[in-house]
Amino acid sequence: MNRGTYRYRFERGVPLRDVRESLLLAVMAAECLHGESRVRLDASYRFNRDRRVCVIDASSDVGRDINRLFTGLAIKEFGKDAFQVERVESEPQAEEVIR
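Given the sequence above, the corresponding structure tokens read:
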């Protein structure tokens, strides 16, 4: 069981393009902290537009930083009631991988 994976579900009305951009901004910020190669090797994240879901693997230092950054950005941009976040055992199937 991987207790380091987080699933974010966004409410209707939250612009998914902005969610995706916030995720990419969190990844870019993690690159500033850890370097591009380490993020490329250690980060795992997924976005599913149809399900309105973002999944971040936070089992590494890099993933934990991406998770924290994304959570902070999402709260500031969309509000704390615009999404739910939960720890999950595994990633959803058929996700769109963004890199």
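The chain is about 45% helix and 25% strand. Try to locate this feature in the token string yourself.
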